[in-house]
Write a structure and sequence with these properties.
The protein is of the alpha/beta class. The protein has helices at about 30, 40-60, 85-90, 150-160, 190-200, 210-220, 240-255, 255-265, 270-285; strands at about 20, 25, 75, 95-100, 115-120, 135-140, 160-170, 220-230, 290-300, 320. α2 packs across α7. The protein binds S-adenosylmethionine. It holds the Pfam family Methyltransf_25.
Length: about 325
């Protein structure tokens, strides 16, 4: 994460070494250093692209929610398949977009000229200069940011933003819910959820999604605004489209396979059986199951870009996160 002249340093080959568990490829470095437990193969890169499509639908194709009509410098924390970073670089061709990820190879080789992808661990203090970016974006990073890093992660983001710049975060709380009372704690979706939350602790904070507003406020952000949306698990949900079918079906095994087996000692067969049963419940429209999705924006004090405007996106099921409906913790 170097703020100096754009000097390209050859990539350390240990960072692209893979290790296979139960038919999926993982980054050896991320596993060995307790950084991230998700697969990094092409199958997972595809799922990230599907997930990006689903978010585009959820957010009415808005990539940036705060009022920032002409951003000049953007940082994307944990670019993954680089879908968001590429779209944002193409939408704002004069903006310098920088992406950081611990694993570089889920992104395509062909990138827009204004997108620079770098490899680093976001659990280490940022080395970017202060007051630099107009926007810092962080989406689906709870599986990778250490539980005790969230406070300093927010502080680092605040520091590298220019006064008046914005932070935008999106996290899914992987705890399946249903508002009609049909999903009980014995259902596979609930067992999967409990097991997933347990498998990440104590090193990661799988409940970070619900804490974004507090974390941002505590770090010193102002105009902090949170929304609670829902990711429907029924793959036939027309609003979310066909991409959600692939996304939901795949995530139930891809997020679970390493932490459930290597972390909790389940057999791969048991994990696949649980995932298959959870998929059947997700497919069953009567459960109306969903994962809560938390969105939060906040502004660094000062600067000229003062705006009392609210999120520049909306969604039918959108609501402020202090509204009546609450996720089960
Ligand atoms: C679930 S994916 C999300 C990708 C992207 N933000 C998106 O919304 O599509 C998490 C990504 O963060 C990366 N990652 C996880 N922990 C990290 C860390 N501590 N430092 C850098 N990258 C990390 C992983 O390699 C993976 O590409």
């Amino acid at each position: 994460m170097d703020d100096g002249d754009l000097e390209t340093v050859p990539l350390d080959t240990t960072l692209v070494e893979l290790v296979t568990f139960h038919g999926r490829d993982f980054q050896r470095y991320a596993l060995e250093n307790g950084i991230y437990y998700g697969p990094v193969d092409e199958h997972e890169a595809d799922r990230h692209r599907f997930m990006h499509e689903v978010f585009n639908r959820m957010f009415d194709n808005r990539l940036i929610f705060p009022p920032l009509p002409a951003p000049r410098r953007i940082l994307d924390c944990g670019f993954g398949s680089a879908s968001w970073a590429i779209d944002v670089a193409e939408q704002f061709p004069t903006c310098e977009v920088t992406g950081i990820d611990i694993y570089p190879n889920m992104a395509p080789e062909d990138l827009p000229p204004n997108l620079d992808l770098q490899v680093d661990d976001l659990n280490s203090p940022f080395t970017f200069g202060s007051n630099h970016f107009d926007l810092v974006h962080s989406r689906l990073m709870a599986g990778g940011i250490n539980a005790d890093r969230w406070g300093t992660y927010m502080a680092d983001i605040l520091r590298v933003l220019r006064p008046g710049g914005w932070c935008q975060m999106v996290e899914i709380y992987y705890n399946a819910q249903s508002d009609n009372g049909t999903l009980t704690d014995n259902h596979a979706l609930r067992v999967w959820s409990r097991t997933y939350l347990q498998s990440l602790q104590p090193y990661k904070n799988p409940r970070a999604a619900m804490q974004l507003q507090n974390l941002m406020t505590q770090a010193g952000f102002v105009e902090v605004e949170g929304r609670l949306l829902t990711l429907p698990l029924n793959p036939r949900d027309r609003e979310m489209g066909a991409a959600n079918r692939e996304n939901v079906h795949r995530l139930l095994s891809s997020l679970a396979i390493y932490p459930f087996t290597e972390g909790l000692g389940m057999t791969p067969t048991d994990v696949q059986l649980l995932a298959a049963q959870a998929r059947m419940e997700a497919d069953n429209p009567s459960f109306k199951a969903y994962f809560p999705v938390y969105v939060c924006i906040g502004r660094k004090p000062g600067g000229s870009n003062h705006s009392k405007g609210s999120h520049q996106y909306h969604h039918k099921s959108g609501r402020t996160s202090d509204s009546r409906k609450r996720a089960r913790h």
